[in-house]
Amino acid sequence: MVTIGILAILLGATLAQYFKVFVLFPSCAAVLASAVALESVWGESLAHSMIAGALAAVGLQLGYFLGLTVRQLIAAWSHPGLTKSQQPAFPSES
Fold first, then answer.
1. Is CB count within 10 Å lower at the N or C end of the chain?
2. Along the 94 residues of the chain, how does pLDDT read in single tens digits?
3. What is the SS3 assignment for 71?
4. Rounded to two decimals, what is the model's pTM?
5. Sequence spans of domains, the chain
6. What does residue 8 show for φ and ψ, rounded to 5 degrees?
7. How far is CA 31 from CA 27, 50, 55, 74, 76, in A?
């Protein structure tokens, strides 16, 4: 189940780099069905399969959010025209 969650997070982060948020609807359905099918093949109960599917769908959405956040932070830090007040607010290292 952990493997499915990690793969879903990585897939969500990858989708965030190339697609808009509307890609989450069909991809969540596909990930949910794939996780349930995979858990069923491995011989798990239906309840365990549904929990794994829900974990995969939530992991996909979390990965999408994290992918968007990382992309925006990189864009904000690499843009040379931003003033100090326009850069993301993070605590200083000192």
1. C
2. 788 889 899 999 999 989 898 999 999 999 888 888 888 888 888 888 888 888 999 999 999 999 999 988 887 777 666 656 666 666 555 4
3. helix
4. 0.74
5. 2-86
6. -65, -40
7. 6, 12, 10, 28, 31
